[in-house]
Design a protein that fits this description.
alpha/beta, Chitobiase, domain 2, Alpha-d-glucuronidase, C-terminal Domain, 3 domains, 8-stranded parallel β-barrel, 19 helices, 17 strands, 11% strand, globular, GH, Alpha-glucuronidase
Length: 659
């Protein structure tokens, strides 16, 4: 096999040599065979039968096959021990290498004998950067941008290549490198003066098998001073985008396409001209189609200028109401990007009813790795269990078993494109993510995107072993802490599916009424008698009716609705009895106290590990946990006081509430 000097195959060779050297201290002898992309490690004679077998194996482009035989010398890769790594392409070979290195890093007694063949379930596995060219990161909690500073691309930065390597190691194959809220300077990324730099970025990511995309400003023809309109049906606008696409692909032949946020939160879009989202997306899709480019059109569209007194308007309905009627009208290279929930990455939401409801339209689910509403990488909140619930959700839209993960994998509807995307949580902090433990979310997203059937605890254990050492007390405790962290964070923040009880714009500290009377349309409707939003068909906003009958009926009654989503779908009295046997008000009190107490116990257990973790990480995580405890206590006291004053019902256990 002849490798491209800067391609994924060459990266596979480098990573395998460097990885084995780092993890074991050995200097491996590698053999690269002619024909399909195969690497052998250890005894060539012992490997020959496996080599012949894997050489003939049919594999898709990103798939890999891995065969390990330990032989008489154990895992020393000498004597009769061997490993054979085969990829369906150079990209598949790179995935095989990273899988092999994960095995070495997580197996306490060394790698075991293994025969594994894997291919990614989702075709598109994408990261969205919300980086701005001034060097800031919107909703960034780990420092500034690794890509930009002072309105230029940091091509000299070694961290960009490190990041590409990091993403490839967990199976990511696409990245958009600028904020979906595209400002004036970022608009220029698609214009000639900056395309040379964009090409160099694309080369860095391409060397690890990752395709580069850009977020674009829908009003770019106006913003760049060339036209007076951005009307998608205007022939001059169509020619402008066609010419722009030609210029981009002439400079960056491997360019992936555009990510677009339009007609959302005051961003420009086709609504300005009386057009719809299909008109807008198809304009860009037609320009990109000759080059194989894609348009990822975000469905986060809602009226952000609402009157809080109008209870008939429901932000949760918006994406479905806007996009469902357009099914079948989008070009084949348009992919709708749908947030996992109908609101905005809250700690608890139902799955968006739009996912799977457009059988004639490509769509991907979007998650947020950046912890905007889930602790901002100050508080530990391992989000993989939350994402698993979304991916495992059965929509019933094509009969039982129409789960989100099967839809995302293109197994339910035969569409050209499918997959998952997520908002990145990295920045230029030394530890990448602000909180050492927040790295687990980026790792976990990549692993789930590759295989959504993986168990959340399996992912937590894998990351903990790779990070703190296989079989160590620190790894065991961190795995346990990660798995507890999402329910614990939920337990001291907004209760039973309400969400949004945060300081406006800042989104970290508690403010129960912060958004209650704002224009953004996010309310809990708490009064002296009860709390929650009625989203039923009979008496509420009708949102529950956007689901298939099985889920509509499940959510439609307080008796059948899962407790964790009760207040998302129903306005109930504080004395309503949950399935746990507690009243709503007592659940609020108990869970706030329990959440803060659990964080306190984490600190005690982490202190016991002093000396078993390097000083820098031990001190950093301890400081973060102490800050989380302060935050949890504040949430506990503010929320409990607020609802005691609303309800007038005391805590059954007589604990201190600041009345």
């Amino acid at each position: 096999m002849e490798l491209r000097p800067n391609g994924p195959g060459a990266a596979a060779l480098r990573e395998l040599s460097r990885g084995i050297g780092t993890l074991t201290g050995l200097q491996p002898s590698l053999t690269l065979k002619a024909g399909p992309p195969i690497l052998t490690l250890g005894s060539p004679e012992a490997a020959r039968p496996a080599l012949n077998e894997l050489n003939a194996l049919p594999l898709s482009e990103e798939a890999y096959a891995l065969r390990i035989g330990l032989g008489s010398e154990g895992a020393e890769w000498s004597g009769s021990g061997y490993a054979v790594l085969r990829g369906g392409s150079e990209r598949g070979l790179l995935h095989a290498v990273f899988r092999f290195l994960r095995l070495i890093g997580t197996e306490q007694d060394g790698p075991r004998e293994l025969h594994e063949v894997e291919s990614p379930r989702s075709v598109l596995r994408m990261i969205d950067q919300w980086d701005n060219m001034d060097g800031s990161v919107e909703r960034g909690y780990s420092g500034g941008s690794i890509f930009y500073r002072d309105n230029r691309i940091l091509l000299e930065s070694e961290r960009i290549a490190d990041y590409a390597r990091l993403l490839a190691s967990v199976g990511i194959n696409a990245i958009s490198v600028n904020n979906v809220n595209v400002h004036r300077e970022e608009t220029k990324l698609i214009a000639a003066p900056l395309l040379h730099d964009v090409k160099r970025l694309a080369d860095v990511f391409g060397s690890f098998g990752i395709r580069l995309f850009l977020s674009v400003n829908y009003a770019a023809p106006i913003e760049l001073g060339e036209l007076g309109t951005a009307d998608p049906l205007d022939e001059g606008v169509r020619r402008w985008w066609k010419r722009t696409a030609e210029e981009i692909y002439a400079a960056v032949p491997e360019f992936g396409g555009f990510v677009v946020k339009a007609d959302s939160e005051n961003r420009p879009g086709p609504f300005t001209y009386g057009r719809d989202h299909a008109d807008g997306a198809n304009l860009l899709a037609d320009a990109l189609a000759p080059f194989g480019g894609l348009v990822l059109w975000r469905c986060f569209v809602y009226d952000c200028h609402q009157d809080w007194r109008d209870r008939s308007t429901d932000r949760a309905r918006a994406a479905y109401d806007h996009f469902r009627p357009l099914d079948g009208r989008f070009r084949d290279n348009v992919i709708l990007q749908i947030k996992n929930g109908p609101m905005d990455f809250q700690v608890r939401e139902p799955v968006s009813p739009l996912f799977g409801a457009m059988p004639k339209t490509n769509h991907v689910m979007e998650f947020q790795i950046a912890q905007e509403y889930t602790g901002q990488q100050r508080d530990v909140c391992f989000l993989v269990p939350q994402w698993k619930k979304s991916l495992d959700f059965d929509t019933f839209l094509n009969g039982p078993g129409s789960t989100v993960k099967r839809i995302a994998a293109g197994e339910v509807h035969p569409l050209p494109h499918s997959g998952v995307a997520a908002v990145s949580n990295i920045g230029n902090d030394d530890n990448w993510t602000g909180h050492h433990l927040a790295q687990a979310n980026l790792f976990g997203f990549g692993r789930l995107a590759w295989n959504p059937d993986l168990d959340a605890e399996e992912i937590a254990a894998e990351w903990s072993a790779l990070t703190f050492g296989a079989g160590t007390p620190a790894a065991a405790f961190v795995r346990e802490l990660l798995m507890e962290s999402w329910p614990v964070y939920e337990s001291y923040t907004a209760p039973l599916g309400v969400g949004w009880m945060v300081q406006p714009h800042y989104h970290y500290a508690v403010d129960v009424d912060g958004y209650e009377y704002s224009k953004w349309g996010t309310y809990h409707f708490a009064d002296r008698n009860g709390i929650g939003v009625d989203r039923t068909l009979g008496t509420g906003t009708g949102y529950a009716g956007q689901y298939a009958a099985e889920n509509r009926d499940l959510y439609g009654s307080p008796e059948s609705c899962p407790d964790e989503l009760l207040l998302f779908f129903h306005h109930v009295p504080y004395t309503h009895v949950l399935k746990s046997g507690k009243t709503v008000i007592q659940h609020i009190y108990d869970s706030r106290f329990e959440g803060a107490a659990r964080v306190e116990s984490w600190i005690e257990r982490w202190r016991e590990l002093e000396g078993g973790v390097d000083d820098e990480r031990f001190s950093h995580i301890l400081r973060r946990l102490e800050g989380q405890l302060e935050n949890a206590r504040q949430w506990r006291d503010v929320v409990n006081t607020y609802f005691y004053r609303k309800s007038g019902i005391p805590d059954e256990q007589g604990r201190n509430i600041y009345a």
